[in-house]
Amino acid sequence: MGRWTLHLSVGLGLLAVLLTCCYAEENYCLEAKDKDCSECLQAGVGCAYCLDETFDGFRCDLSKNIKARGCNRVTEYGFERKINIEKDERINMKVQQSQVSPQQISMRFLPGEEKRVNVEVFAPLKGPLDLYILMDFSNSMADDLNNLKKLGTKMASHFQQESDDFTIGFGKFVDKVIEPQTDMRPSKLLKPWPNSDPPFSFKNVIKLTNNVTFFTSELQKERISGNLDAPEGGFDAILQAAVCGDKIGWRKHSTHLLVFSTESAFHYESDGANVLSGIMARNDEGCHLDATGKYTQDIHQDYPSIPTLVRLLDKHNIIPIFAVTDHSFSYYQKLQAYFPIAEVGLLQEDSSNILPIMVTAFQNIRSKMRISADGGPSAFEAKFFATNGSISPHGNFDFTPGEIGKLQMQLKAPRMYNKQSVCQMNPADKEGTVKVKPSTFNTAVNVKASIICPICDCEKVVISTAARCHNRGDLVCGKCRCFSGWVGPFCNCSAGSSALDTSLCTGPQMKDPCSGRGECMACGTCVCYNPDQFEGQYCQYDKTQCQRHGGFLCNDRGSCVMGGCVCAEGWTGMACECPKSNQTCRDSQGAVCNGRGKCVCGRCECPKTDFVTTSTCEPNFDTRTGVCEATRNCVECQAWKTGEKKAKEECAKCPFKIVLVDELKDVKKVLDSCSYRDEEDDCMYHYTVENPKDPTVKDLEVQVLKKKDCPPASLLWLLPFLLFLLLLLALLLLCCWKFCACCKTCFQSCLALLPCCKGGRMVGFKEDEYLLRQSLLTSDHLDTPMVRTGPPKGTDVVRWKVTDNVHRPPNHPQALIKPNPKETIQFPLSLRLNRLFSENLSRPESRDAEQLRKEVADNLNEVYKQIPGAQKVQKTSFRMQRNAGKRQDYTIMDTVLSAPRSSYPDIVKLTEKNVQSGNIHDLKVVPGYYTVATDREAAGAIEFQEGVESVDVHVPLFVKDEDDDKKQLQVEAVDVPLGIAEIGKRLVNITIIKEHATSVFSFLQPAYTYSRGDGVANIPISREIIEDGRAQVTYRTRDLTAKDKKDYVAMEGDLTYNPDETQKTVPVRLLELSEKDGLLEDKQVKQFVMDLSNPRQGAKLGRYPRTTVTITDQPEPSVMMFKKGAQNFSTSDTTYTIPVVRTRNQDSTATVKWRTKKAQRFDLSGPLKFSPGETEKSIVIDPRAHPGSVQPETIQLELFDPSSNATIGDRKTTLVNVGAGIPKSPLQQKGYLNQSATSPGGRLLAPSNLKAKATGPRNIRLNWDQASGNPLGYKVKYWIYGDPEKDAQVLDVKTTQAELTNLYPYCDYEMRVCSYNQIGDGSDTDIVTCQTLEDAPGEPGRLAFNVISPTVTQVSWAEPAETNGNITAYEVIYTPIDDEQPVGAAKKVKIDNPKKRMLLIENLQKSQTYQYKVRAMNSIGWGPFRDATINLASQPTRPMSIPIIPDIPIVDAEAGDEYDSYLMYSNEVMKSPTGSKTPSVSGDDYTMNGKWDQNFLFPGGSGTRNMSSSSSPMSTLSSNYKGAGGSFITDTSTTYMSGQGGSRRTDMMVGGVHTSEVIMRKRSESRGYTDEHIRDSIVMGDVSGNFPDLGGFGYAGTQSSSQSQFSYSLSTGPRARTESSDVNDALYNLDRVLQDARLSPGVPDTPSRLVFSALGPTALKVSWQEPRCDKDIMGYCVLYQLLNGAEVKHINVTNPAENSVIIQDLLPNHSYLFKVKAQSQEGWGPEREGVITIESAVDPKSPLSPMPGSPFTLSTPSAPGPLVFTALSPDSLQLSWEKPRKPNGDILGYVVTCEQLHGGGDVRSFQVSGDSAETSLTVPNLTENVPYKFKVQARTTQGFGPEREGIITIESQDGSALSQYNSQSMSRREVFQLPTEVSTRTNVSQSMIKEPFFSDGMMMTSQHTETSGMVTRQVTKEVVQRSVVGGTMVTKKMFYES
């Protein structure tokens, strides 16, 4: 019985909670639907409770909802809650002081209720004013003080004009009188500078006074003072000036201004604690001025913080004015943003302009007013509105002084506060007084506010054991409260009843109980399986099946409840698509639909009118027509009864009435002023148009000037002139007829213009008509051929014109709209230049194109400047035109001229005139060709040269969005101005059929932000595909504040999208700041825009056709680190001084913290602060200041927590070695004698004056002075910097110098020297360090290819093993070859960024073999090439789900040679500063944001594995061994055999013998795994180098078979020269690629990749790849939680085709753990895990809220380094690991868990403290031959980081070769979630001998076995009795079973 009760209660509770979560957002009353009556009424305003006993539904809901459901007895809070105005004295404008009205109000609120009240404020025109000047008195402000003294009287008199009641005061400040801010030498404390006062912090010199004479005289007495550091202590002064009101003299009803004058930055909170002064106490915000006005607590308290100053100045109504010089202007500009009202003025160096600054600031402040609500209960929220209802976000208003300002204050009592009901809060938080006042006022509106928490009276009447409740419960407020054991609305069902009648769970017309969507519980109650989706009594309603609007459920403005949309407040409609408010229908005047239409569902339904109207029924005069053109006809008909509407019935339709006036208004005061010529009387008339002033009037106000301007009436004087012209024309015709025959035979070409001499030559268009589809257009022009017939001798020039939209009749609405002649439009121009076209001119960025573009612009601008209103030409480009006769090789120039529309005829005439002369100013052009176009017509000319019969006319098509669905253009051959040809076919018609857009082009967002450090701004352009196909669009950048060639490189061109292509990226190169700009403190924000235009092939522009790009300047961070990796001291030293150095960006202040570790007697920490210019600071430790005696020890110091503008360098830690010593003599203490010179006991003294100098890349020369005591010789110890001294090599020399050879290039070495004699070694010298010189780098590491397609590959390489310096660049050369011979030109690509070791190459020749070569360069020069040969067609294509690594240079194999073949940068950017939405990848511990860690395989080295198909039945093993002194190569090739077989080959080489033996037995060609997606495993883990080394040899090998190909390599880094790595590392890592088949058949594998894409600071898209599974995938489950532990949330994906989800409301800067798993019929598969963090800037006041508009990036914390196991005994082992690269916070320690892999035994947990670079743990009490699983997880300040897992088995090795050394074998198995089903196990046996390196008698053997289901490798080290003199022997044995 109890079990069913539990099930039922849990089910009902879960249902209630889920339903509450679902609906609480829209209807807060439903949160209390199951609660008591009082809790219901307290849920919020409008909530009501149903008292009906028989009511079946939610008893708590909105009153209207309950009544609609049939409730008759409803209780709700009905008491009136009026606004009581207790004090309201009206504002008296005659009183010149700040006033508010009303003064006292009281309000009572229900939870969730809001109220508004009208408030009036008054700022007097000349109100009381207090001006306090606070000045920096450091020595650099001496000239500023002198100028201030001169301006004292003038300043006071000026402000007396601004205020009738004015006071002025003066204070001065410097800084804290303590080191290091102040020079504490006695002489400097008296007089820091000549003629100066002693230093001080702050002093109030002149109290606020209205005595100007006193102020001026006292100011003359002041002298300057001084301090040391640049930042000043002005914040101390500001705080004291604010809180010491009486001593400063602030008055209650005056405006308080504080002028802060300085030329330096400022100290702020914690600066007092972070300097040597040691001031630790926080500022107490109190007044501490003595009787003389001097600040007394400057050396006892810290500086105040910025928030403290903002709060205190606001509290005391003080407005700061910062008058600062250019040196610190940018600091105070940023500081200004924190204050409600503040001003910043740029002060000249001598402060001579301080008075204008104060005047301007005062005027700006008077025009601003910020209203705020201070104090009061925390449960209230205040907002402020203008009288028109618009909200003021920060309470800012522009009220005019001297006038009453009106506003509305809204006060709201929230229902919840900090996730707690307001009725449950403390009384003090629910009731109190809110002060509403302007920031400059002392007076305020006092609002007494309180929250009402109603109590239901019915709860006082309880009917015990009510019959309505079947006598099993009490009846309270109509609802049964059941006794224990009874449930149901009326307590009629036993909770323990076992009889389940499922029929009670089946509704009408239902077949299944609970609709098949839930479980039928006792009493017929349905508990839905998925309450998030299903609801209702029978789970019959689906919450996802309500009506949608715009694709959104309930328009995203409501909830789907019981099958219908329940709309949020303010929305209605079946899908909540209609707003109840008419705000969206308000026009520009605030009226609804301009008074002409109806507001229906949030939109205006406008009546039909002759005007084009806006969405709010207002006239829409766009730029094409204008106001004048739209009103012209109506004005003519009403004023003069003329024009197109002179018919009475037409004129009556005009939507406005005119007014005839004698004088028109000023042009600046009206909407537009119009002038037209009346064609009927040739007179000009004038009128103005303006919007009505009265919002109730909807018609335009049109005023027409009564009098027209008419021309003079008499034209009789023209008659004689016309008669003379007619007579002259007749005479010319007679001469023509008389001499016609002569002109034909002798002077044909001279008199070709005479019509009688045409000679039968004809020109005309070839075609009659063209029919075009707009969607198929690839250009905005059409080349229309014109032909010439007849004798082709001579030249003919034909003028042509084109007219748009000739299909429209004269009365067409669009034809009636005349364009505005004053409108500025673009005129495309084309000219043929008198120069041949070259390929460079087609590239806009080439030098030839740029020079010619400038020449064209200069000359055209000179010519067209005579056109009134013409602007400079732009968008100049160059092209060729085919079919242009003999001129087709000449350059055609296209450009755009902007000018008024009416200037079109003048531009055509001017162009034609200059073209015919052959010169455009000084620019040579070809006569006979030009084109001038507008947006609706064009004119031009073409030329037929002698012998040419056909020429193309380049006709513009005027394609526009507003075109008709079918439009027609007409091209007309006008005349032949030069030549004898006649025009034949004169016209050609071009018809364009408009279709719906097939694509939409848009930028992804309207703005981007990039840093100059990025080097390139990748701007994505998206394409929305409506109908698939090809599409084109044009892009172009344009300057704003950023300038081309200075801040960025301008880009323009066309983008072509192929079918299915949805996005392309345009890379814009960002330029570094010039030296001049870099020195400027006040840098202007640099921005440029990129525009999209001219979409073609049926496309159009979408939401964002323009984007703005902001370029930010972020200085390089300072790098701070220890100067040395180790420091040596003795116990006799009084102090330990450890230097810390800083490099880069040394001009700013930077801080870093330090702390000690592993010290025996103390645990120290502290800060280091580098001031501007400082490059070295020291940490000083006094060992005697701590308890206990000083003993020899080793202390570790660590740097941590650098400031935001700094990072920590390579030497993050240093070792302080304290050795035994004796007290130093005075000479030693002063450094005159070496401490070892006094060593007792007869030991030789240490040599002195040891010096080291690098003489080459591999040589260092040492010199020292001879030691006393007749030494026999000297021992020189030298070792690599950072290695222990015990590993040093020793060189024995007999002289006082030594030459160290065979060193590593560009490597730091440490050295010391001692002398020796018969007694032994003498004392050592101090350690000296020296770095060898650079050498040419070695060849790069392995080449790897990511095959994207048969023509695209991504090639990557590792850094050279021997960098021998700093790599500065790489060069990639790729050449098509055939049989190793080049068959094409080699292409070079130089990559200047050495971090970008990848290159994406496109447009390779298909099925062509290429040779790729890569080499590196450092300061010495280029190193050797690493080469590889590959044919992409024979390689499997890598899935595109792998993101291309960011910022990879992409080159085009078809582009030019040398280094100019860059096309773009990859747009798959994983981690971007300006809000990127591209993926970051997790799932592989050694991928960081999609980038492979190139060194994850081996410390200091690199390694890769590539897998691909191969058709060869051969297996090849190739090995390449390299040593420091030589190299050797062995190759073994073996063919598969049916039985046993083998081959043996021995190679002799210098330095050793190598033997390889391969034995193979063929069983089957099948494999238990495939190589598909095998790439996922190659970055899963690594092995620390804990195996012996082969004496510095490197190993590289490849192995291929019929099924797969492996490649692996091992090399050591330039600094990692210890014998600590083994060739077995590479073999071991190779085997880890494979995984055992342990999953049940049909169960899905792990999703093969997890990809994260940031959509915002709090939103993330998680996607994955479908896992491999023998059966169909049914769905997925996504689980996620905060990494530091929280509720696990899950998302079920029921559609197997969907492989992504979007997750909102994440916390910024918090790490989340995500898990994804797949489900089939056989069950759930294993999970793929990933940890991700969205990093973004957050609001300092709310760390969980991202800063709006801030950039966001993705990062991921990492797990602890690879687990390394060392067997100590049969039942114990040592486990060690490395510190995570990116822990989730600061590491506090680690948690290690250990459990048996297959169950059994307890789970053991170990806590490990510390955060060392490497940590180890000894684990006892293990069992032999039992596999254990270990997990290591970092415990951090943010919780826990990701886990690292490892599986290990200690196997017994009885009778092995190592038993005499008590050896143990160690078996290790790593399990990875891979799409293949193979595992790897490696057995490693390590002898327990002390020497970790190979000796002569040690042999390494390796055994490799492959089977169809598992690959196993066993590597064993054995000690054998074998010695090979003069070399090394390595034996390897491998077995293959395939």
Key terms:
mainly beta, disordered N terminus, disordered C terminus, 1938 residues
- Give the amount of beta strand, in percent: 35-45%
Instruction: Please give the share of residues in helix.
Output: 10-25%
Structural class: mainly beta
Mean pLDDT: 75
Q: Name the shape in a single word.
A: globular
For the record, give the distance between the C-alpha atoms at the N and C termini, rounded to a whole number: 63 Å
In the predicted model, the low-confidence regions spanning at least 5 consecutive residues are 1-25, 741-758, 1223-1241, 1437-1448, 1454-1638, 1853-1938
Description of the structure:
The protein is mainly β. The chain has 22 helices and 125 strands. Strands 45, 47, 48, 49, 50, 51, 52, 53, 55 and 57 form a 10-stranded mixed β-sheet that branches. α4 (about 140-160) packs antiparallel against α6 (about 210-220) and α7 (about 235-245) packs parallel to α9 (about 305-315). It is globular, with a radius of gyration of 44 Å.
Briefly say what this structure is:
This protein is mainly beta.
Write the layout of secondary structure elements.
Elements: H1 2-23, H2 37-41, E1 47-50, E2 60-62, H3 63-68, E3 74-76, E4 84-87, E5 99-101, E6 104-109, E7 114-122, E8 129-136, H4 142-162, E9 166-173, H5 186-190, E10 202-209, H6 212-220, H7 234-243, H8 245-248, E11 255-262, H9 306-315, E12 318-324, H10 329-336, E13 343-346, H11 354-366, E14 369-374, E15 381-385, E16 391-392, E17 396-397, E18 404-412, E19 416-417, E20 420-421, H12 427-430, E21 431-438, E22 445-451, E23 462-463, E24 473-476, E25 479-482, E26 486-487, E27 493-494, E28 518-520, E29 526-528, E30 534-535, E31 541-542, E32 548-549, E33 552-553, E34 558-561, E35 564-567, E36 571-572, E37 578-579, E38 598-600, E39 603-605, H13 626-640, H14 648-651, E40 658-661, E41 672-678, E42 683-690, E43 701-705, H15 718-738, H16 740-745, E44 762-765, E45 769-773, E46 781-789, E47 796-803, H17 813-816, E48 824-836, H18 847-864, E49 874-879, E50 890-900, H19 904-917, E51 919-920, E52 923-933, E53 937-944, E54 950-956, E55 966-978, E56 982-983, E57 987-993, E58 999-1003, E59 1007-1011, E60 1016-1025, E61 1031-1039, ...
Parallel strand pairs: 6-22, 8-9, 8-11, 11-12, 12-13, 40-43, 44-56, 45-57, 58-65, 59-66, 67-74, 68-75, 89-92, 100-125, 122-124
Antiparallel strand pairs: 1-2, 1-3, 4-6, 5-7, 7-18, 9-10, 14-17, 14-21, 15-16, 15-18, 19-20, 21-22, 23-24, 24-25, 26-27, 28-29, 30-31, 32-33, 34-35, 36-37, 38-39, 41-42, 42-43, 44-46, 46-54, 47-53, 47-55, 48-50, 48-52, 49-50, 51-52, 52-53, 55-57, 58-60, 60-63, 61-62, 61-64, 64-66, 67-69, 69-72, ...
